[in-house]
Amino acid sequence: MDELIFFINKVIISGTVIGSIYALGAVGVTLVFGILRFAHFAHGDMMTLGAFFTYSLVAILAAAGFSLPIPLGIALMPVAMALTSVAALGLDKGFYAPLRRKGAKPVTLLIASIGVTLMLQGVIRLFYGTSTRTFFESEPKDIFRIDMSWAGGTRPITITEPQAWMFGLVVVAVLALHFFLTRSRLGKGMRAMSDNPDLAQVSGINTALVVRVTWILAGALAAMAGTMLALDVSLKPDLAFNIILPIFAAAVVGGLGQTYGAIAGGFLVGFAETLAVFDWTVFLRPFRENLPEWLATAQGLSLVPTEYKLTVAFVILVIVLLVRPTGIFKGLST
Amino acid sequence: MTRRVLIAYLALAVLIVIIGMTRGVSTALLLTAISSIYALVALGLNIQFGYGGLFNLAIMGLLMIGGMTVSSISMPINWAFWNSDGPMLLGRAILAAGAGVLLILGVRNLWRIGIPRGVVTWLTVLAWLAGYVLYRTQIDPAASYIETQVQGGWVGGLGLPVYVGYAVAGALAGLAAWVIGKISLGLRSDYLAIATIGMSEIIRAFVKNMDWLTRGTLTVTPIPWPVPLPGAYQDGGVDIPTSFVYGQGGFVLVTLAILIVAVLLVERAYAGPWGRMMRAVRDNHIAASSMGKDVKARQIEIFVFGAVLMGIGGALLSSFNQLFDPGGYIPINHTFLIWVMVIVGGMGNSYGAVLGGFLVYLMWAMSEPVSAAIFAQVSRGTVALGWGPIPEIDARAAQMRVFVLGLVIWLSLRFAPKGLLPEVIRRHV
User: Fold this and answer.
1) Contacts (Cβ under 8 Å, ≥6 apart) of A197
2) Rounded distance, CA A297 to CA A281, Å?
3) Which pLDDT band, with edges at 50, 70 and 90, does B250 fall under?
4) How far apart, in whole angstroms, are the C-alpha atoms of residue A54 and residue A64?
5) What pLDDT, in 10s, does the model give residues B186-243?
6) Every domain of chain A and the residues it spans
7) Res A304: pLDDT
């Protein structure tokens, strides 16, 4: 039983955590791709920006001696999401809109987004330095331990407070997004524009508004994903630069432009990563007496050594691209 | 156009002379050597993106392959490894890999004896898994044996001349590009960008962690030079500053010779029928394929050509630094910087890409002391105001350069999308 609890702690919970973050990030990437038809490389740094907005707000309020029964990072996340949405609109107005007006090709916008990601990275590190920070300096990080003795386990299932919040909020965010896209006028307009921009425009959809709403959503989702990642681990300026690659892998695996595909891709990549580096020897332990010696004493039976965790996302990406070149859910192309 | 090229290169020469007069001849030669290597890599990217329209973000990975190869070929032979059990263990790992490949190939052909296709697909997946597990059972003990029991902790080099290292580096980078191209070419540009950046990260993960082959983060040093080192001149009785001028001057001659030969060959090929075909494939691949051109094969061809130059560039870079450090490769310095060179210099024009390589690298190298000086000045200001000095001033100054790099990308896309020396399109009447 302890082995199963270990598995739940190591795989189910951390897989869900990382999968949720990938899914939120990939949805943002895929929305921008659907509407504007370019891979937005600066999404990772928008995540970092959002996390640093939350961090600054928390630091200010904590310095003022403010405290809440829930973690301040969670409570202040909506404010940071709004701020990041404004920043995303600003980025579009300042950098992408002028290029679009000139009729730039998607490749040009893609290169421009690399430029924007470098600029954002520079600005973030200029203000916040390169050190690692944590949200839990002024308040404790609560850990819930679910006692499993009723099932014969000696160790509990552990889950931290921010993780519990994350599970709830991701479900809320996905449902809200679903209803927005399927029930609201704007959401339907977004889907129409993603399918066929010209047809959407002649049907009287305000495409400029759709673009703005897309950036607002992308900024809010990026801030949410970034803050959650920072709450779960720690806040580093290169936080999202390392995570943008698996997020892109998730978005491509799901099919660029497909919102539900991105969610599926995010969880697929997240679980694949945690499963691949999971050490399966734990499950051999109960049967140790009955196993041949070479198997009983085997060390580190993980499919992939931990150092190669990053490559898992890309191996999945490569396989999917080979088998279904536009992703699991049929994605768009430029 | 020719005048524009001449004026631009004259300005570049003047800039290098000014650097030489203000910061010393040795510094100018050092910067010229590195920037000519970067220019070679930019030329490679220009072939891929400017001529072929292929979006390659795997430059860092190809440079790493180049550096790794030259260190493996040119470093002295590690007899401690060859006299140990290492070669036998590695041989078994290679046999296991071969057996795995045979197993996969065999299973893939099972349909010939009447097994349904669907079953064969699943069996192939299982065969891949079995082959991988078989390989891992052999390579893991071999790797840990070499890393812990063998003196030096790696297999060592082959002790061959460094020129051979450059050539093999180009060949291996080309081979890697062929694999990358087979997998990801034919995808549209955004997918290609993501796939190549992924490949580059995979290469980095392997090179960094395969300590038995590459020494990983322990770094390999000193990689030999193709010309005498400054130390050799010092032994001949030359004083130290002059010996550096001689040594680095010799290396500059080598890199410039390689660069000039590469530019001439590329220009000649691009002006001929091959170049016309490539332009056709880039500008309208549907029309090109209806004229009987094999678009994907041509794209792989151009991808490999560009990658060969990148591999040679990566080998030259490691060889010049005399150091192969997998931890020193970061996407900003080794992928995005090259992109800035090509965008600023001019996509589709070899002279433009080379010019961009020199200019952007010189700016990038010179911006380090400049930005540190600006930050030191600002810090003095904040101290005077009573706010105290800027914390982590060096890291912040370095980040300012990243910001400027991003800004340069955007500014050139916005205001000079064709670059300093735009592509020349000759009309054949």
Assistant:
1) A207
2) 9
3) very high
4) 15
5) 777 777 888 888 888 889 988 988 888 888 888 888 888 998 888 888 888 888 888 8
6) 2-323
7) 82
Q: Name the CATH topology of A2-323.
A: ABC transporter involved in vitamin B12 uptake, BtuC (1.10.3470)
Tokens of B83: 């006299």
Q: Mutate which of B49, B185, B187, B190 to test chain A, going by most A C-beta atoms within 10 A?
A: B190
Thinking of the domain B2-79+159-415, which architecture would CATH place it in?
Answer: Orthogonal Bundle (1.10)
Task: Please report residues of B whose CB lies closer than 8 A to that of A249.
Answer: 194, 198
Structure confidence at residue B218 (pLDDT): 84
Check CB contact under 8 Å for A310 and B339. Answer: no
Q: Which of B289, B336, B316 is nearest to B36 (CA)?
A: B316
What's the distance, CA B40 to chain centroid? 10
Give Cβ neighbours of residue B242 (< 8 Å, ≥ 6 apart): B233
Helix (H) or strand (E) holding A101: helix A97-101
Could you tell me if the ipTM is greater than 0.90?
no
Tell whether A119 is within 8 A of chain B (Cβ): yes
Long-range contacts of B356-359 (CB under 8 A, 24+ apart): B356/B39, B356/B42, B356/B419, B356/B420, B357/B35, B357/B36, B357/B38, B357/B39, B357/B40, B357/B41, B357/B42, B357/B43, B358/B12, B358/B32, B358/B35, B358/B36, B358/B38, B358/B39, B359/B12, B359/B15, B359/B420
Across the strands, what pairs with A160?
A: A143
Q: What is the pLDDT of residue A4?
A: 81
- CB contact, 8 Å: B406 with chain A? yes
Per-residue pLDDT of chain A (334 residues; tens, 9 = 90+): 777 888 888 888 989 999 999 999 999 999 999 898 888 989 999 999 999 999 999 988 888 877 788 888 888 999 999 999 999 999 999 999 999 998 888 888 988 999 999 999 889 888 887 788 888 777 777 788 877 777 777 778 888 888 989 999 999 999 999 999 999 999 999 989 988 888 998 998 998 999 999 999 999 999 999 999 998 888 888 776 678 888 988 998 888 888 889 999 999 999 999 998 887 877 777 776 777 766 666 666 778 888 888 888 888 888 887 777 777 777 665 4
**CB B69, CB B162: distance < 8 Å:** no
Q: Where are the domains of chain B?
A: 2-79+159-415, 85-149
Token representation of residue A270? 């997240």
Contacts of B164 (CB under 8 A, 6+ apart): B73, B74
Across the interface, whether the CB atoms of A252 and B188 are under 8 A apart is answered no
Give yes or no for A116 touching B (CB within 8 A): yes
Interface touch A122/B400, C-beta < 8 Å: yes
Q: Rounded to whole angstroms, how far apart are CA atoms B93 and B114?
A: 33
The residue among B357, B325, B329, B321 whose CA lies nearest residue B42 is B357
- The chain B residue lying nearest A119, using CA atoms, is B403
Cis previous bond, B222, omega within 30: yes
Please tell me which residue of chain B has the smallest CA distance to A37: B190
| Selected residues 151-190 of chain A with any CB under 8 Å from a CB in chain B | none
